Amino acid sequence: MNSRTLGIAAWIGLIVLHLAWSLWLAPPNGSSWPGLALALIPLMLAALALRQSVQRALLWVGVMSLFYFSHGVALVWSEPRARLPAALEVGLCLLLVGALGWQARHYKRKPR
Fold first, then answer.
1. For 33-37, 53-57, 68-72, 105-109, which range has the lowest pLDDT when averaged over its residues?
2. Between vectors from CA 39 to CA 37 and to CA 41, what angle results, nearest 5°?
3. What is the band of 109 on the pLDDT scale with cuts at 50, 70, 90?
């Protein structure tokens, strides 16, 4: 599995995780739709960059995943009921950023 495929799998994993988190694993008290929308809209907006290139879309998701990483770390320490999904979120973010870093390692710029 190459790093691009791993990055896309982690991106899809974040989307599926947030769907499962809000609807099944640890739904919030009250309506889950606002929280689900706040979690999914940024991940889905990065799909708009797929028209230009997969690398650009993964770059946007990688930058946004730093916010998801912070969210996951905060919930691992503060919310006992959401520890498992939050730890999965942290792991997927680390996998995504690691895959992007591995992919960038092999990137060569065109000479001017």
1. 105-109
2. 60
3. low
The predicted model scores a pTM of 0.84
CA dihedral (100, 101, 104, 106) positive or negative: negative
64 with 42: CB under 8 angstroms? yes
Tokens at 59, concatenated: 């770059």
CA distances from 71 to 3, 16, 21, 105 (A): 24, 16, 13, 27
Residue 89: is its pLDDT beyond 80? Answer: yes
In degrees, rounded to 5, the angle at the alpha carbon of residue 61 between the alpha carbons of residues 57 and 67 is 160
Domain range annotation of the chain: 3-26+38-105
What confidence score (pLDDT) does residue 108 get?
67
35 and 110 Cβ atoms separated by less than 8 Å: no
How far from 45 is each of 4, 13, 16, 48, 51, CA to CA, in Å? 19, 16, 15, 6, 12
